[in-house]
Amino acid sequence: MLDFDPGSGRISTASADVILAVAEELGVGVEWVLETHAHADHLSAVGYVRSCTGAKLGIGAGIREVQDLFGAMFAATDLKPGAADFDLLLNDGDTLPLGELAIEVLSTPGHTPACVSYRVGDALFVGDTLFMPDYGTARCDFPGGDARQLYRSIQRILSLPPETRLFLCHDYRVPGRDRFAWETTVAEERGSNVHVGGAVGEEDYVTMREARDATLCPPKLLYPAIQVNIRGGRLPPPEPNGSRYLKIPLKAADAVPG
Ligand SMILES: N[C@@H](CCC(=O)N[C@@H](CS)C(=O)NCC(=O)O)C(=O)O
Ligand SMILES: [Fe+2]
């Protein structure tokens, strides 16, 4: 991700550079930069990584829907037609070569329409679907989100072999747990995920998820993140004065003059 300070508008690549340095130390090339979805809480560094490495940028084909929803909200007329800000629009079952391995794409929408997971051998990168068993699952109240769809995507993940290792996008560290975590297994999620573990049915899940979502605040970086991430990590174009801006759609009380 890009480091972003909303107060000053300063954006830096320090965190991304740490990852690029690891690749360099290992002597490996970066062939693919694969997004699990257009993140709504941080600015993606994929554009920067792509420009440093020549890697191809992939994302779920549902990004077209996300671009339609948010492109209109931000009047982002510079979006390239056909989601061409991305090199690859991935669909369920697509595979990408990775040395002697292959990366398999699983469509896992619900948190957003573009959500995909990536399977490499017994490892699955699940994006925002499941979180650690003690935290639960992703929210479904962003535009295009759907709790029923997420439930079905999660059932698909949980039907994989129990020993499948799951790598998560976020860990919100529940109170009482002092360490961050990023890896779990299908067996652990099936057994004890607080939202879907045991035999939670679809209707109960949807009721719970929608009730919880109604209590959540938008992520602090929602608007900045979305404007960069639907552009494949590209900043918005400069205004006539040469500066680039991130917009905030206002919801002002009627009494406030416009
Ligand atoms: N407080 C966080 C919220 C981030 C957030 O909403 N995360 C999403 C994933 S992008 C989520 O699914 N959260 C689940 C939850 O809070 O229950 C922020 O401001 O960034
Ligand atoms: Fe997310």
Residue share in β-strands: 15-25%
Helix percentage range = 25-40%
Strand order of the largest sheet: 6-7-8-9-10-11
Count of β-strands: 11
| Alpha-beta classification | alpha/beta
Q: Work out the helix count.
A: 7
Instruction: Tell me which ligands are bound.
Output: glutathione, fe (ii) ion
Distance between the termini: 35 Å
Shape: globular
Overall radius of gyration: 19 Å
Biggest sheet descriptor: 6 strands, mixed
Q: Which oligomerization state do the chains in this entry correspond to?
A: single chain
Q: Helix and strand succession?
A: EEHEHEHEEEEEHEEHHH
- Given as residue ranges, the uncertain stretches (5+ residues, pLDDT < 50) are none
Mean pLDDT: 97
Structure description:
35% of the residues are buried. The chain contains seven helices and eleven strands. The protein is globular. Helix 4 crosses helix 6. Strand 3 (32-34), helix 2 (46-53) and strand 4 (56-60) form a beta-alpha-beta unit. It has helices at 14-26, 46-53, 63-73, 147-158, 186-192, 202-213, 222-229; strands at 3-5, 10-12, 32-34, 56-60, 88-90, 95-98, 101-107, 116-120, 123-125, 165-167, 183-185. The protein is of the alpha/beta class. The strands form three sheets. Strands 6-7-8-9-10-11 form a six-stranded mixed sheet. Bound molecules: glutathione (GSH) and fe (ii) ion. The site of glutathione (GSH) has 9 residues, from loops.
